Automatic annotation (TrEMBL):
Pfam families linked to this entry: MORN
Function: Assembles a suppression complex (suppresome) by tethering SIRT1 and MDM2 to regulate composite modifications of p53/TP53. Confers both deacetylation-mediated functional inactivation, by SIRT1, and ubiquitination-dependent degradation, by MDM2, of p53/TP53, promoting a proliferative and cell survival behaviors. May play a role in the regulation of spermatogenesis.
Signal peptide: none
Repeat is among the record's keywords: yes
Name of the protein described by the UniProt record: MORN repeat-containing protein 3
UniProt entry tagged with the keyword Repeat: yes
Key words of the record: Cytoplasmic vesicle, Repeat
Location in or out of the cell: Cytoplasmic vesicle, Secretory vesicle, Acrosome
InterPro entries: MORN (IPR003409), MORN3 (IPR052472)
Principal cellular location given in the protein's record: cytoplasm
Gene source species: Aspergillus fumigatiaffinis
Length: 223
């Protein structure tokens, strides 16, 4: 026969030390106690990692904070992994949003060290589909597609610059790259960019006036 009761204990293991609530079972046949973290408690690992929060049946479950040299996570857990709403702080920035199976998944925001803030959806730790990046200077922003690995604008999108200029077109590695339309103080230009530079024929329009220029990496070669 096995009996179960709950209490507060300090436990040690090969991984570190636990201090908090446990449920303790006593096997009356083998005359042996078994203690499992369950409730509120803190685990200090020998490698310097630490978890403080809720437990269920020996694993992180509920609300808790996990701290390592590489990141801090404060949020929801289930089955010992990040699941639900949480805040993850890493060297690459701070993510505040939804998690699933230990990964960023669902709506969320990421604030980068520069102060720029991305808002959108994530899937398996990567940006999914389109999103909005608000820059930290002058109210500039980008809305459109992103590279899922670099998290930079890539694909079709619109960039609004701090000086009020606007570009609608294609991007690669965060730069204008491909066909697009640029508007500056009423002057509209359409053409193809290569690594942020005009390359090829551009059509200009201001009011009822139209003209063309040909560029080679931002240098005018024909008018």
């Amino acid at each position: 026969m096995t009996t179960v009761h709950h209490e507060h204990m300090t436990l040690s293991s090969g991984a570190g030390y636990y201090d908090g609530d446990v449920y303790q079972t006593f096997d009356t046949f083998f005359l042996k106690y078994t203690s499992v973290p369950h409730g509120q408690g803190t685990m200090q690992y020998d490698n310097g990692d630490a978890y403080s929060g809720q437990w269920k049946d020996g694993v992180y479950w509920g609300r808790g904070k996990f701290t390592t040299d590489d990141y801090d996570y404060d949020g929801d857990w289930a089955h010992g992994v990040k699941r639900g709403l949480g805040k993850l702080t890493e060297k690459s920035g701070t993510y505040d949003g939804w998690f699933e199976n230990d990964q960023k998944s669902g709506p969320g925001k990421k604030t980068y060290p520069s102060g720029a803030v991305f808002s959108g959806k994530w899937n398996s730790d990567k940006i999914e589909g389109t999103g909005t990046l608000n820059y930290s200077v002058g109210g500039a922003w980008y809305n459109g597609q992103f590279n899922t690995d670099t998290e930079r604008p890539e694909g079709k999108g619109t960039m609004k610059y701090a000086n009020g200029d606007e570009f609608d077109g294609h991007f690669k590695d965060g730069k204008r790259h491909g066909p697009g339309t640029y508007v500056h103080d009423g002057l509209v230009s359409k053409g193809t960019y290569k690594k942020d530079k005009k390359d090829g024929w551009f059509n200009y329009r201001r009011g009822d006036k139209n003209w063309k220029k040909k560029f080679a990496m931002d240098v005018v070669i024909q008018e």
